[in-house]
Amino acid sequence: MFLTNVLNKGIDFIEKFKTFVMKVMSLQVLQKYLPEGAIFYIEKWLKPYSCHIRITKKRNSKLGDYRYRSGETQQISINGDLEPQLFFFVLTHEIAHLITFSADRKILPHGKEWKICYRNLLLESLNIYEEDFRPMVMAFSKTPKANYMATPEIVRYFSKNTTEDFIEDLNLGHIFEYQNQTFEILEVRKKRYICKNLHSGRKYLFRTCVQVKKLIHDD
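Now predict its structure.
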């Protein structure tokens, strides 16, 4: 019995040490993707949890995600092509998922608990962001959205160097390219653009801040 207890404690120590090493390595890798000073908040927020952060290639469908694993090391993935401020902004979003899901698995992914947590994390780390971006973070934190793409001001802020157009800058009848498909703008309905895929004939809704490549305009 004594030997069994010693062995169990030894195994437990090894597992905890491995988790500690993984966390340290993850944080060291993270630093080159983050704005100056941001690692302090990441360490603070993740300290109570066992979490592995994975840097991925560019994904068109998402910028980051969180996967809950019962009884295991939690996993967050973030696209490695994001500029530091956006990387931190997205990572904060995913850490809010980690914190809230660890407390209660029955909550909605982007429900009130997540919104409150995300708001608190954003405001706590506000000093990390550039001064011209801070007012946008404060405004966003009042009612955090599941996807920052629903906030045109933030999308434009992180697209200052883009060579593409925003669909809201085009007019009815304009033809544009999006994800290697060609569309025509048919109608504007509130904050959505109804566009027809010129290959399939199907109609799609686009947000105002979607970036596209303008092709031609038939007058």
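The helical segments are 2-30, 38-46, 84-103, 112-124, 134-142, 152-157.
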